[in-house]
Design brief:
By secondary structure, the chain is an alpha/beta fold. The chain folds into two domains: 184 residues, Medium-chain alcohol dehydrogenases, catalytic domain (Quinone Oxidoreductase, Chain A, domain 1, Alpha-Beta Complex), CATH 3.90.180; 140 residues, 3-Layer(aba) Sandwich (Rossmann fold). It has eight helices and 17 strands. Strands 1, 4, 5, 6, 9, 10 and 17 form a seven-stranded antiparallel sheet that branches. Strands 13-12-11-14-15-16 form a six-stranded parallel sheet, sandwiched between helices. Strand 2 and strand 3 form a beta hairpin. The radius of gyration is 20 Å and the shape is globular. This is alcohol dehydrogenase. InterPro entries: ADH-like_N, ADH_phosphonate_catab-assoc, Glu_dehyd_C, GroES-like_sf, NAD(P)-bd_dom_sf.
């Protein structure tokens, strides 16, 4: 094996919060693996707690254990295989680079990868989702991660702070994928609707605004989230009931060129599909868990030349687009306000005890305080 270029100051072991199911987290030490061909080792600076992490810990989402969770992270490269590894931007990665990485590691050889659907690779592995025996240092709730061949990595410019940068790996890249899907199917959309104003929703609003969409309406059950989304570029907002219907005011008959559901609720999905105008597109991304069936007016879809598309995960170009979006809007959108100040790694279990005060809670795994006492 060719030797790796390693930062001299980096220790030879990693500390991780290993999840054993439920609220059972255990601080565990691991040896740092030597990067093989196409591989990189990263010291984790900040990891945020995604909604899917919360669903996993709460038992609402099936996941293997023991494992290391966390898939929204930013870190510093500490080792690169000597043959070199390129980021999504085509530049060779160097020790000391600040980077984010994708959720999915694809094989690059199967029929789905060949068709450009690497997010659904037949041999897919996912950061923060793999059992210890398959990929030990896969999750961001650790001082270090081991990034394999096939995982997209993107350098982060100085203009993007660590907290917002971490969001690129899941929420912002997923939003970029959804907006890309909408733009491919709706001809020059001027009017867009976003259902759900969590982090996925506000990131989608920011991506739509950056794409030049003139009118962007956001809907959510929480008035404060609707107001927050306006600061990312929403031109209108409406507070709705959990069934998707407005609590007050008009707007039920408004139609849009593109509607994107991030709520993952039956009411949100129905409102999304029902709000699309002739030639428009409904993008469904929030429904990652089973919920009640949603009626579909097939005649309206057919006669209206509508498209309905699902988005789950993303391809490497969307990670690049996410970082570029964060950089371009770093001074105009309040990304830092979406992330709580990070806590030490030993305090991670407490972040799952209740809802976060902001859209994302965060940990700083490699901060010396993370080791506790």
């Amino acid at each position: 094996m060719a030797e790796a270029r390693t930062a001299a100051a980096d220790a030879g072991s990693a500390l991780a919060q290993v999840w054993h199911g439920g609220m059972d987290f255990r601080l565990t030490s691991f040896p740092l693996p030597e990067p093989g061909p196409g591989e990189v080792t990263v010291r984790v600076l900040v990891s945020t707690v995604c909604g899917s992490d919360r669903h996993t810990v709460a038992g609402r989402r099936s996941a293997p254990s023991p494992s290391i969770l966390g898939h929204e992270s930013v870190g510093e490269v500490v080792a690169v295989h000597s043959d070199g590894v390129c980021g999504v931007d085509g530049r060779g990665l160097q020790v000391g680079d600040r980077v984010v990485w994708g959720v999915t590691a694809a094989c690059g050889r199967c029929d789905r990868c060949a068709a450009g659907v690497s997010a659904k690779c037949r041999l897919l592995r996912k950061t923060g989702h793999e059992p210890l025996g398959v990929w030990p240092l896969s999750g961001g709730f650790a001082t270090h991660v081991h990034l394999p061949r096939g995982l997209p990595i993107m350098p982060v410019p100085d203009a993007v702070a660590d907290g917002p940068a971490a969001l690129a790996g899941c929420a912002v890249a997923t939003a970029a994928a959804c907006v890309d899907a909408a733009l491919q199917r709706a001809s020059r959309p001027r009017r867009a609707l976003v259902l759900g104003a969590g982090l996925l929703g506000v990131a989608t609003v920011a991506a739509l605004a950056a794409a030049g969409v003139e009118q962007i309406e956001v809907r959510d059950v929480d008035a404060s989230r609707v107001d927050f989304a306006r600061r990312f570029g929403a031109t209108a907002g409406r507070v709705v009931r959990r069934d998707g219907a407005p609590r007050s005011g008009t707007g039920d008959g408004d139609l849009f060129d593109a509607a994107i559901d991030m709520s993952g609720t039956p009411g949100g999905v129905a409102a999304c599909v029902g709000s699309v105008d002739v030639g428009g597109v409904a993008v469904l991304a929030g429904s990652v868990r089973p919920h009640a069936a949603v009626p579909l007016d097939a005649e309206r879809v057919v006669r209206g030349h509508m498209s309905i598309v699902g988005v789950h995960n993303y391809v490497p170009v969307h990670l690049r687009d996410a970082v570029r979006l964060l950089a371009a809007t770093s001074s105009s959108s309040p990304w830092s306000e979406a992330v709580e100040p990070p806590v030490p790694l030993y305090r991670l279990p407490g972040l799952f005890a209740g809802p976060p005060a902001r859209l994302r809670a965060a940990v700083a795994p490699s901060n010396p305080q993370s080791f506790g006492t």
